[in-house]
Amino acid sequence: xxxxxxxxxxxxxxxxxxxxxRRLLMLLLVTAQTAGATYIMLGVLPYQxxxxxxxxxLALFAVLFGWISIGFWMAAFGFVIRRLGGDSRSLLAxxxxxxxxxxxxxxxxxxxxxxxxxxxxxxxxxxxxYRDSRRHRPARGLRVLHSLRQPRPGCLxxxxxxxVSPVRGTRRPWPAALPAPQHQPQPxxx
Length: 190
Hints:
The protein is mainly alpha-helical. 51% of the residues lie in helices and 8% in strands. The radius of gyration is 27 Å and the shape is flat.
């Protein structure tokens, strides 16, 4: 009979072996693709890399193409894993779905940087985003960041040194009608 610590060690070893195999496969694919693309680039250059300038250009090309190759292979692996039904070694696979459904999630910040925008149009978008997020998980509140720096009538002025106005979740519900565009919305308007 195995103890729980032995099972944990065994699972950790299996996970580490799979992670090393995946990383080696990724390294092999990225290196092969970058080497092939650099070889093709070598054939395009006028002196086939015989000058110092062309060698520097090839080195820069290899580094920049390597990043593109990493992104491509990550997307390809992600697509294949999703098509196969998910990763059996992911963190989410370690817990039963019923436990994950009842797990308390951390609050999410939705930030709308607003600077001289039309009030009705802006808050219509904020309202729809808020309603859409409520469909997926209950929200505790929503705050809008804007500043009061020389407001223009009918617009919200915004910036990093803004004022946080409560919209939902503190005292009053979401307003049925948006504030009139003739003035700058204040926290007491909500």
